[in-house]
Amino acid sequence: MSGAGNGTGNGAGAADVILDVRDVRAAYDKTDVLTGVSLEVRRGEFVCVIGANTAGKTTLLKTISRLIPRSSGTITLDGADLMGRRAHEVPALGLAHVPEGRHVFPDMTVVENLKLGAYTVGDPGVVEGRLRRVFDLFPRLAERQRQHAGTLSGGEQQMVAVGRALMLEPKLLVLDEPSHGLAPIVVEELHNRLVEINRSGVSVLLVEQNVQMALSVAQRGYVLQSGQFVLSGSAEALMKDDKVREAYLGI
């Protein structure tokens, strides 16, 4: 396991890395939030970032997605430079971001919300094919496809948010606290779906406070503390690390 540092250096070849974040710093107004972080996600890999509230986890994802322009360092997605991009340009490069809080459109139906994820696709047949794949993954959404999203449970709205992101057919799916506020049985179902998504070939970067859940689905992880990575390694090694167990698992 790696200690404090940039958390990379795992021997992956450049062609294997789909997301490469190097020495990234980000700030809100005059307040520094990320103070030089580096991470990588390989093709087909499931990586998690864990840490307490205010550690900078959401800021990290927003910086990668270019929702926070006041930042420096380098970020590449499948070789494409993201630092020079605006937020609305990033999805077309293959990155889908599921934000914290789901952000579904409550007065639109489930199917209308999902189709927003494929807004750049001009072929209706392609859109319908992607819808079928989302409904196969989340059968409950198929049952409720004509229902307004605002009438769904929190877990169902989270399924809509994930499904909408998958309509992009992303190379990389990033998720911000998807288990927040959900019942344990729903978290377990989400856990299973995320594993299935990853096994289909989609790389995943997950930010979570639910450390047990995050480390149970990911292959590797990073521990973020006060805007810096302080530990990184395999999910199994982090789960066994005394500092992680004491700080985040209560063991």
Give a structural overview.
There is one protein chain. The chain has nine helices and ten strands. By secondary structure, the chain is α/β, with parallel strands linked by helices. It has one domain (14-248): 3-Layer(aba) Sandwich (Rossmann fold). The strands form two sheets. It has a six-stranded mixed beta sheet with strand order 6-7-8-3-9-10, sandwiched between helices. Strand 1 (17-28) and strand 2 form a beta hairpin. The longest helix has 16 residues, at 184-199. The model is unreliable at 4-11 (pLDDT under 50).
Descriptive terms for the model:
alpha/beta, single chain, six-stranded mixed β-sheet, four-stranded antiparallel β-sheet, Rossmann fold, globular, 251 residues, 9 helices
Could you say what the CATH topology is called? Rossmann fold
Give the beta-strand count: 10
The CATH architecture comes to 3-Layer(aba) Sandwich
Radius of gyration: 18 Å
Number of domains: 1
Query: What is the fourth-level CATH superfamily?
Result: P-loop containing nucleotide triphosphate hydrolases
Proportion of residues in β-strands: 25-35%
Reading the helices and strands in chain order gives EEEHEEEHHHHEHEHEEHH
End-to-end gap: 19 Å
Structural class estimated from helices and strands: alpha/beta
Give the rounded overall mean pLDDT.
91
Q: Give the helix level as a range of percent.
A: 25-40%
As residue ranges, the low-confidence spans are 4-11
